[in-house]
Amino acid sequence: MNKIDYSLYLVTDRDILGNRNLYKAVEDSIKGGATVIQLREKFINDEKFLEIAKELQKVTKKYNIPLIINDNVKIAKEIDAEGVHIGQSDESLEEARKILGKDKIIGVSVGSVEEALKAEAGGADYLGIGTVFYTGSKKDINEPLGLKNLEIIAHSVKIPSVAIGGIHLDNIKEVMKTGVCGVAVISEILGKEDIEKASKTLLSFIK
């Protein structure tokens, strides 16, 4: 993988898809322009997670799109995914790097300048900054950051950053003005009837 394009970063959520097929949904999003796929599974065991990851990897490899595994360094290592994304309370960045090696992508969720600088100093490849706006997918967040804080955090580091949390067509242009490299979305793609079209539309607002 050469330079990663973080413009349209899709985070999966099978709950939002309902009875629709995850692999087809991801393929449609890639056809529409998704540039990175993060597999996020919070409530299944490792065996099932591994099974889904291997299946999804067939799709991402077909289109040469990076597959990032959320919070599970072991599975990222086992399937040789392009990278992993860790939160503040997950496995340490140092530990993840030790397991995955220097060539893999490691992203870190941050919500303050202090966390951003620490992640950058620790060798993170990119940051997920959020939560920017109120969102239905994260029940445990405090006050959302808002655009001003997003801009301050994005400008405090030299590594790429993506904004996450409550990003929709009506605010995406303002989000991109803050200096982030892209947006991470869930429902704005997977919650739509036509996933390919939703992805295309979002990308047209980013680029």
The backbone outline, from C-alpha atoms, is: globular
Contiguous uncertain segments of 5+ residues: none
Helix content: 40-55%
Strand order of the largest sheet: 1-2-3-4-5-6-7-8
Gap between N and C termini: 21 Å
| Mean pLDDT value | 95
Total number of β-strand segments?
A: 8
Which class best fits the helix and strand makeup?
A: alpha/beta
**Count of separate DSSP helical elements:** 10
Order of helices and strands: EHHEHEHEHEHEHEHEHH
Using the CA coordinates, give the radius of gyration.
Answer: 16 Å
Main beta-sheet annotation: 8 strands, parallel, barrel
- Share of residues in strands: 15-25%
Structure description:
By secondary structure, the protein is of the alpha/beta class. The chain contains 10 helices and 8 strands. It has an 8-stranded parallel β-barrel with strand order 1-2-3-4-5-6-7-8, surrounded by 6 helices. Helix 2 packs parallel to helix 3 (46-62) and helix 2 (22-32) runs parallel beside helix 10. 43% of the residues are buried. The model has no long low-confidence stretch (mean pLDDT 95).
